[in-house]
Structures are given as structure tokens and as C-alpha cells.
Design goal:
The chain is α/β, with parallel strands linked by helices. The chain has five helices and five strands; from the N terminus they run H-E-H-E-H-E-H-E-E-H. It has a single domain, classed as Pyruvate Kinase, Chain: A, domain 1 (3-Layer(aba) Sandwich). About 60% of the residues lie in helices and about 15% in strands. It has a five-stranded mixed beta sheet, with helices on both faces. Helix 4 packs across helix 5.
Length: about 290
């Protein structure tokens, strides 16, 4: 009976966990729909702004734009690391952390400066004595464009004051609900491919001037890129958590089935043992 009681307790515990994982899956699915919609809306805006700046770059001296200027020598590397505040999302956080650590090892630990977005990345690298320059906490509780602007302005200040010579961002790119890819993109200095002018743009008169327009657009483009990375990462997090919780729910279902089978076998064994004892006792009395 002790064994039966133990199995019954395990079934109850696993059933409770299954209810939690199922609820978490539903919450993640609801958040995914909204975050995926926002992320997909942001992609064409960011791409169109990049195309516009690329078309104007042909007639502009890029040396007049500080965010585009490459340093003569790169000695300090900035890495913007985007993770989640919580776990239970499969390999979502660990993949980003692993890629970041490999990147830092390749650059040299003393040459890398970290800007951590998300609690998981910050906890991992701060406990291992990496150079964490900035930690943006509680960002995911109320994700909005103003927070992206603040992060962008902070990183720009580090770059313009030569505290970092190059900045990369490492994040999860949203491919679809079942697949995310860890990418590393250079965000400073910004690089634009100069494109051949379209015939429809040749006769356009720009006011006040092309250089003034680009000076205004480049910082906005940079902030938009930061915002897009955050949207991509948030949508990827919800997709990864939904998939992880779905797998956990299915595993719990299988475990409950196996425990029920084990429980039935143990109960049958107990019943058989009791019957044998009764029969044995009856035979002993009859003799």
C-alpha cells in the first residue's frame, strides 16, 4: 500500500504540473499573436528607411555622419545581448548566451563590453566577471518604442565618446513559430550599401538638403533597428516558450499514462497477494 500511495502522489503532482504548463502555453500563444503582428509590421518600415538612406548616400559625404565613421583602429568592442527575464523557454536564452560567450572569447575578454537586455544574460555574465557596462532591467514588462530610443541613445553616446569602437547585437531572429535563429548584426558604425539611383528619383528636389535629411534619418534608423531587434526577440521568446510548454505538457501526459499503468500493476499485485494470503489461511484452517 505504501507503494500505491507513493504512485498516487506522483500522479497528482504531475497532473498539477501539466495544468500549469498547459496554462503557460496558452498565455505564450496569446502573447505570440500580438508580438508577431507588431514584429511583422516593423520589418517593412525598417527596410524602407534603409533603402531610402542608401539611395541618398550616393551624393553625400559619409564622413559628415559620425554614426557611419569607422575608427582607424578597433580596440574596444560593444556587444548588445538580448535575452529574456525568465526561463522555461527551451534553449532561447542559452543559445544567445553561448554565441555571445564564443564571440567574447574570440575578441578577448578584456576587449569586450556588454550591454545586457534581459535578466538571464545579465545574471550569467555578471556572475562570471565579464565587463557588463549596462543592464536594462524590467524592459519586457512594458515594451515600447521610447525604451528602444533610450537604449539607442545610450549606445550612441558610448560610440561617439570612443568608449566602444564597434557595436554588435546578438539576438533571436523570428523565422516562424517553430524556429528561431540566433544572429549577430553590426549596428555601429552603421553600414549602408550605396545603391544605383532609380530613374524615378533622379529629378527629385530635396529640402532642406540631402545631407540634412540623412543626418535626421540615420539616428531614427538606428533607433528603429534597436526596436526591431527587441520585437524579434520578444516574439521569438513567446514562440520558444509556447513550444517548450507544449512539449512539457505532452511529456507530462505520457508520464501520467506510465504512472497509471504502474499504479494498476501495483494494485493488481497487491490484490493477488491478498487473495493468496486468504486462500492460504483458509486452507490452514481446514487442515
Amino acid at each position: 500500500m505504501a507503494n500505491l500511495k507513493n504512485i498516487r502522489s506522483q500522479i497528482k503532482s504531475v497532473t498539477s504540473i501539466q495544468k500549469v504548463t498547459k496554462a503557460m502555453k496558452m498565455v505564450a500563444a496569446a502573447k505570440l499573436r500580438k508580438s508577431q503582428e507588431n514584429m511583422e509590421k516593423g520589418r517593412p518600415y525598417s527596410n524602407r528607411m534603409k533603402d531610402l538612406i542608401s539611395n541618398l548616400m550616393n551624393d553625400v559625404d559619409s564622413s559628415l555622419l559620425p554614426l557611419l565613421n569607422r575608427p582607424t583602429k578597433t580596440t574596444k568592442y560593444g556587444i548588445v545581448l538580448i535575452t529574456a527575464d525568465r526561463g522555461l523557454a527551451g534553449s532561447f536564452n542559452s543559445n544567445v548566451i553561448k554565441k555571445t560567450e564564443n564571440t567574447i572569447n574570440a575578441l578577448g575578454k578584456e576587449n569586450a563590453v556588454l550591454f545586457c537586455i534581459g535578466k538571464k544574460g545579465f545574471e550569467y555574465f555578471s556572475k562570471r566577471n565579464f565587463d557588463v557596462e549596462k543592464y536594462y532591467e524590467d524592459l519586457w514588462l512594458d515594451l515600447n518604442y521610447n525604451k528602444a530610443i533610450n537604449i539607442g541613445q545610450n549606445i550612441i553616446e558610448y560610440f561617439l565618446h570612443h568608449r566602444v569602437d564597434k557595436v554588435d547585437v546578438i539576438y533571436n531572429y523570428f523565422k516562424n513559430a517553430a524556429s528561431q535563429e540566433v544572429l549577430s548584426n553590426q549596428i555601429l558604425p552603421i553600414e549602408f550599401e550605396q545603391e544605383e539611383k532609380q530613374s524615378s528619383l533622379k529629378d527629385i528636389i530635396y529640402e532642406p538638403s540631402k545631407i540634412e535629411i540623412i543626418k535626421s534619418l540615420v539616428p531614427k534608423y538606428f533607433n528603429t533597428q534597436i526596436w526591431q531587434f527587441l520585437l524579434e526577440s520578444f516574439a521569438s521568446e513567446q514562440a520558444a516558450r509556447m513550444l517548450a510548454m507544449e512539449n512539457a505538457t505532452e511529456n507530462a501526459k505520457e508520464m501520467i499514462s506510465e504512472l497509471n499503468l504502474e499504479f494498476n500493476k501495483a494494485r493488481q499485485t497487491a490484490i493477488t497477494t491478498e487473495m493468496l494470503e486468504i486462500v492460504g489461511g483458509a486452507e490452514a484452517l481446514s487442515n
